[in-house]
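Task: complex structure prediction.
Instruction: return structure tokens for all chains below.
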Amino acid sequence: MAEAELVSRAAKRKRAFWRTLMYVAIAAFFLWTTLPLLIMVLSSLKELRDAFQIPDIGDWAGAFEKMFNFTPTLRHYHNLFVEEHFLTYIVNSIVAAGSASVISVAFGALAAYGLARGKIKGEQHLSFWILSTRMAPVVAVMVPLYSIFTGLGLLEALRGRNLVGLILAYTTFDLPFAVWFMRSFFEDIPVEVEEAAKVDGCSNIQAFYKVILPLAMPGIVAALILCLVFSWNDFIFASVFGQQGAKTLPVATAELHSTVAIQWGGIMAAGTILITPMLFLGLLVKKYLVQGMTMGAVRQ
Amino acid sequence: MDLTRREVLKKMGLGGMVLVGGTIVKSPFSKTQLAHAGNDQKWKQFSGSKIVFMSEDTPPTAAIKSKVKGFTDLTGIDIEIIEEHLDIVAEKVGIDVRGRTGAYACFYSQDKPIGAPFYKHASDLRTFEKDPSLPKVPNGVGNDVWLNRFLDITGRFFGDPKIAAYPYDNAVAVMMYRKDLFEKYSPNFEAEYGKPLVYTKDTTWKDVLEICKFFKKAKFPDVKYGIALQGREGWGGQLDYQRVSYANGMWLEWDFDDYFGSNKPGPCKWGDEQSIMTMGNYKELMKYAHPDSLTNDWSGANTAYITGLAAMQPQYGEFAAVVEDPRQSKAAGGRTVYELCPKGAPEWIVGKGKAVNGTNCGIGGIAINRWAKNDLQKAAYLFALWSTSHDTQYMVLKDVGGTPTRKSVFEMPDVKKAFDRKTAPMKKLAKPVEMEKGVMVNEVPLMPNALTYGPILESIWKPQFVVGPKVVKFNEYIQIQTSEIHKCVSGLKSPKESCDAIKKKTDRLYRV
Amino acid sequence: MTHPKEETLSPPLPVYQGSGPNQGLFNKIKGMLPFHLWLMLPTIIVLAVITIYPFIWMVVMSFKETAMDPGEKDVWVGLYNYVRLLDDEPFLNGVKLLVWYFILCLSIEMIVGTSVAMLINNAKFENVFIVIFVMPMMVAPIVVGYLFRFLYNVSFGWGYWFLKSTGLMGGETILANAKPWLLPFMPSTAFMAVVAADVWEWTPLIILIVLAGLKAVPQDQLEAARVDGAGPVRTFLEVTLPNIKGVLLIAVVVRFMDNVRLIDLIYVLTKGGPADTTKILPFYLYNVSFRYFEFGRGAAIGFILLLFTIIMGMFFVNVVFKKKEVGNNG
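Output:
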């Protein structure tokens, strides 16, 4: 009896030890993730002279004071919205990233379904080829892309055209990703489901959107969200193809680094703006992405 | 009105609807009719048109952008001014001219990084000068109206008589230093080195090194380092290094004409004794300079200076506006003095080389895109004339802070008064700023850049002025150069190895 | 598990033909391609237009030397651009650094990401953690670059202050530090700083993907392992890992593709310096194409980079995460 007690006490201590380690690990990662974000948000509210203040090396006590003791100012945000027209850029980002993602996922879903169902030999390879179109280093193919876009008239400095150009540019890397990603979701759905639908009198197309689509929806939303993230974050395409008409948030933020000075206040404010909608997206992500990935991943 | 560049930038309010290259509304008059018309008519001949100017986002362009209504009123032309980082300007102009698109009717042609590689893609301005249907500006655009040989710098390349660009802005290096700190710590310095802590025209780079060692060792509470350098890879680093290499022995990489450059430079002089000695000395300087000096370019160095971490910085004149703004800068309120760049030190020179106050520059030009439609080019020429005219440069300098390139602007009486802080016109701040406990500053110079003009006007002459190297493939050359300098400064290579590596790669680049 | 609908099997019926006017023509066009290829057509057309011409351009360009001046033609030089690379120090340096970069970034991100995912899976505040941990990924790389440039700055950077205060760093500067980090053969401190920024931004992506995979691990298998008395390590190795292999593959490939392509972070933090120690191959490519405008050389480098990415991708898919035989999925 005593021995069992001893064993279980040792086991409990071992468990407690691992549990503490777990907590420490999570806490450490939490700090690692949030501290830079915290500094970013706080700096966006500080006057530059305050933002540049750090305590002396080793002065831990002073750290708290330097970080939190300041007179907050909304000057940087005011600057962004009033003088830099950031609202326009936010809209541009949303429109371009959103449209490209929706288009990519729409076409991509069709293609993924086709790939999944079609009896094509070597479809694993075809799907990889599609993905590989996304692997090309953009810089190397910028010149021909530039001439394609000029030829299509998308680079004239009209907002509408530039936005279309940007959406097309984003589609070039969203679409392959969407197809590759969603293929396995569609493969997961057994053929019997469509066949049952056809028994009920559906055509191929109807079977697709009435029956298959709802089943694959989590995967589709997952692809949509990831495409949104990739397009939202893009810099190089927006910088070259967005031109003046369709400046997006990342490009606009980079412009706050002028030749004479880096506008840290503005940059921090822009960064804070970037993460705010993501708070909402994060919840969406949780709901769909987790569920979505569950479905198809297993089959890889 | 506030000084900070960002607050100066006004909303464009120009509609922003511009097509590739722009749109031209032709004048109802024929060319011959225009040739006999008055200047006013000539200015207005393209009224209703639109063009695009691709420029670097420097204060002069921001200033011109805020005053651009004057141009539109004069000509009726709608101009869109795009401002980008210099690298991006080079990139976009490069793609544009290589693809012969002509989207930017005129572009900012910074002498070496953009002018040299692309000068063949710029139209010859002399054709516009000779065209009787185009207007003229008072004093004209001949060699002598610009500061010393600036037209050669921006406009003439490699012996080609064509004029590629008019001088549009000037960035000439001066030394900015904290006189207040120097005075405060002079006793300490004197105790250690036996001479007062001062900076003059005759201060050498070796003296600067001493000052840096002094400050770094002393660890004063209000300043940490002697100097903030700009060693960032690329043009910033090349210019930074050149100030030291040229001051000590007037060393140049090649022997061709400094003002015109060469498109077949031949073998370079890297690897010779002087270059190795300078490399070693630069490494020493970097050791005692502000630690971020290797990654800083001009804006990074300026931040180090205005936050009070460095007591000196070799910097370009247009930064004076920020330096003199007490809301951003601890060096404002009369604490900063502007002087020539340091001289070479005899101990740092090999052989018979001369010691000079090595000063270098980036003179930006405004060039016309050869691939734009002919009439668009003429409209762009009108802008080139207007933006570099005396009235515009003077107005911009007074109101917002520019860097004029015409001699006549420097001769205006109120500008001359602004050279010296004691006579410079000031303007009151909306709210006084507390620089430090009990020290309030409630006014700033009206034309802060003018405080640098004294040294600048003195330094833009030979022998102390160095303009080049104006070579093709300039951008790749400076990458090679600064890359190796970095390796030497970081201790990865010896000075000799670095210089030899530069020589090998550069000669290969130019197929020697 | 995945499909709630019918389970009855019925023999396959002929495809529904549809009715209405013009049935003949419509069906004729329809019949030209199998239904599934129709579905793929828009995608294939778009991708072909956007990718085939640039790809061919790139390959052809790699055999030429570009002329800078107008009026001069590009010169055909055959394999010169490629051969020259063998002797090109920035290229070789770029390759070496790129290998370091993706090995360091990917391994750290995968290990940390998977561990964190496992830790928060079914934890008490799981939802809160997810929302917070996902945030770095949502900040554009360019902005992350500036944020870390701010943090690493010697004059006012909290990151710098922290590293110095805890004694973790001896040197004087982070981003200008070209000395090897820790061991002499390792890349520089500045390089590790860039890796840190990349890890900060992209670990959330891995966490998300792996977390999803963890949710799919069949409960019965976990239950069986617990009954068996398997400790956490054994459970992980024998039950969890095989089940999330597919998910791990997705994570690795997705991350790898962008890691070797995007240079936003480096562009803002170090521009390839100091002393070329962060000049990974894609950054060198950017310099050659967009600074020197040597499109021929750039195309050659680009092609090599593309080949490298494809080969590594195939390596991951076929070797590391080889699909199990059909009929045996977890």
